[in-house]
Amino acid sequence: MKPNWQDLMRQATLAQAASLFDAAAVMQRSFSSTASARPAPPSAPPPLEEVVASPQPLVLDVEARVIEPAPSLRARRTRTRPAHVPVRRGPGEFRSGHYTQVSGSREYRLYIPPGAAEAPLPLVVMLHGCVQDPDDFAAGTRMNEVAREHGFYVLYPAQTKNANQSRCWNWFKHNHQQRGRGEPALLAAMTAETMNRYRIDRRRVYIAGLSAGGSMAAIVAHAYPELYAAVGVHSGLPPGSAFDIASGLAAMREGPRPAWHPVLPPTGFMPPSTAVPTIVFHGDRDPMVHPRNADGIIASALGKGGARPGARLEQSGTVGGRRYTRFCYLEADRQHVFAEQWVVHGAGHAWAGGHPHASCTEAHGPDASREMWRFFAEHPRP
């Protein structure tokens, strides 16, 4: 997010008292939309097969290159259009590609680990934050390094400026919050197409993101629980916490108010029985997204009113000079963890344990990438 984000939020908050349209004008540098009318009740969601198969999506790989074990922070290369995709060698590939279907198109980056042709491997979909792109996000989170060590694919969809001026995923717009519509449908279809093109273990497909990307990851996982086995949210907001710019700003500033949304229940878009295992990271000094949103994400995962009767365990410690508190929410059998919430004390709006020279990263504290993968590995789809 931009350095002057707090000032923009403050200006927009003052403006929205007079007019939501004034608030949208103040925020136009950060969001590409204006305040929306309240949505009509959604129709019955289409099955995933319809989203993926009709129309037939087209995927074009336009670049592939060998990468170092850890993502480089060197200046990005100018994209080219080679006709030949080189054979994988060394520590893996980091491919560029373009995905298109009738509802839209997006660029992406795909990390392919060594030995990918030998057996089906897991897939992690990573959604970047505002003003970021896949290269910056991969370098900052170092998720490719984790993928190389543990053997899984990483897909980084890229948001466009045409879709959002600041390249934010549109989590706050009602037409991008439901199954079969907008960006959730596009991301689910892109995930399914990647699963069809590569040797992916379909029981081990996961999605995670930071900030706006984390908010969209929560939405997509709730909307397509048959596709994603677990979700990771870093510094994001729960599904259904906003439906336009004004409610989005308020949720970021104060925490979620599910009553704002007239259509989508605070438990997400599916019954609690279809909620996916969830891991959440959030700094308790986050000036951009209020830490109460992390509580809202956990409440959404557990079900309305804490429907899952399992116990909560608490653990604390210090890593890299940062204290943390970790809450584990057990299944009803009290033996399996369904959700984890990591509170990183003293941290702001940044990916914990990330590369110190990338954007929106905090080099100190627990390694969010490795902890997310550890949680994902413990939660294949039944």
TrEMBL record:
Short name of one Pfam family: Esterase_PHB
Gene3D superfamilies: alpha/beta hydrolase (3.40.50.1820)
GO cellular component: extracellular region
Keywords: Hydrolase, Signal
Top-level taxon: Bacteria
PANTHER family in UniProt: BLL1128 PROTEIN, UNNAMED PRODUCT-RELATED
Protein name, as recorded: Uncharacterized protein
Organism, as annotated: Caldimonas brevitalea
